[in-house]
Amino acid sequence: MLVKGRSSMLLIVAAIIFILSGCAEKKTTTEKMYDVLENVVNKEKVFEEQQEPLVALEKQEKDVYDQIIKQGMKEYDQIVKLSDEALALADKRKDRLEQETTSLKESEQEFSKVADLKKQLEDPALKELAAELYNIMMRRYEAHRDLYKQYSLALQYDKELYQMFKNKNLPLEDLEAQINKLNESYQKVYAANDQFNKYTEQYNEKKLSFYKKAGLKTK
Predict the structure, then answer these.
(1) Could you tell me where the DSSP H helices lie in 71-123?
(2) Domain boundaries, the chain
(3) Tens digit of pLDDT for each residue in 102-136?
(4) Closest CA to 189 of 141, 124, 143
(5) What's the pTM value of the predicted model, to 2 decimals?
(6) 216 falls in which pLDDT band (50, 70, 90)?
(7) DSSP readout, 112-152?
(8) How many CA atoms lie within 13 A of 83 on its CB side?
(9) Please, what sign has the CA dihedral across residues 33, 35, 39, 42?
(10) What distances in angstroms separate CA 66 from CA 50, 69, 70, 88, 162, one per listed residue?
(11) Residue 73's pLDDT band (boundaries 50, 70, 90)?
(12) Radius of gyration for the chain, computed over Cα atoms and rounded to the nearest angstrom
């Protein structure tokens, strides 16, 4: 009798849950869009957290590089020590870059849900805004992929340079060629970063316009 009583109670509870869930108001497409866009913000928190530490590491590495340049070849042991410090800092920068990129990939995976949601919007003006928002964000992700590529290459050239500093018999021409290659590489990094930042700004503006047009709250 006890088992039978429990079974009956479970059926009653299940029926109540079913009825209540049926009565629950379903989210509109704009509300679903809002949820996705705010989830994207959360996915990029790790990305945001890498910015200051990455800049700090770049500054530290630049300071070490300046110390290396000031050393004469009589201070070879000190040059080797400083070069090893710079290599370690470059590895830390690489780690931060990978964390940043992983965060952006998770963001893109979440944002991909917008592709279907924007088609379900009925208001033509809202639909157009959503399409513009989507296109800008996809260009932003592509810009970051280019930034990752250029920054990774520059990091590789950095590490090659620090290894060269440890070579007592390094020809001056080789050193100059490496430094020139490195400078050209960082010019591409700066350009890629500017492009990424531009798309980020455009996306944030377009998202705000979408929220206002849809009558959604902003954070």
Answers:
(1) 76-111, 114-120
(2) 28-214
(3) 999 999 999 999 999 999 999 999 999 999 999 99
(4) 143
(5) 0.86
(6) confident
(7) TTHHHHHHH---HHHHHHHHHHHHHHHHHHHHHHHHHHHHH
(8) 19
(9) positive
(10) 24, 5, 6, 16, 12
(11) low
(12) 27
Which tokens in the block code for residue 82?
């400083």
Residue 217: alpha-carbon gap to chain centroid: 25
What is the C-alpha separation between 181 and 148, in angstroms, rounded?
A: 18
Q: What span, in angstroms and rounded, lies between the C-alpha atoms of 172 and 150? A: 26
Q: What is the pLDDT of residue 25?
A: 60
For 73, the token pair is 């070849």
Query: Locate tokens 């040059």: which residue?
Result: 79
Q: What's the token pair of residue 218?
A: 């902003």
CATH 1.20.120.570 fits domain 28-214: yes
